[in-house]
Amino acid sequence: MGWAIALHGGAGDIPRSLSPDRHLPREAALRHCLQLGVSALQSHAHPLDVVELVVRELENHPQFNAGKGSVLTTDGTVEMEACIMDGKTMRCGAVSGLTTVVNAVSVARLVMDKTPHIYLGFQGAEAFAREHGLETVDPSHFITPGNIERLKQAKEANRVQIDYTQPIKQDEKSEVLAANGGSGDSQIGTVGCVAVDRDGNLATATSTGGLVNKMVGRIGDTPVIGAGTYANSYCAVSATGRGEAVIRATVARDVAALMEYKGLSLQEAAAYVVGERVPQGTAGLVAVSASGEVTMPFNTTGMFRACATEDGYTEIGIWPTEQE
Question: Which residues are the active-site ones (predicted)?
Answer without folding.
Answer: 190
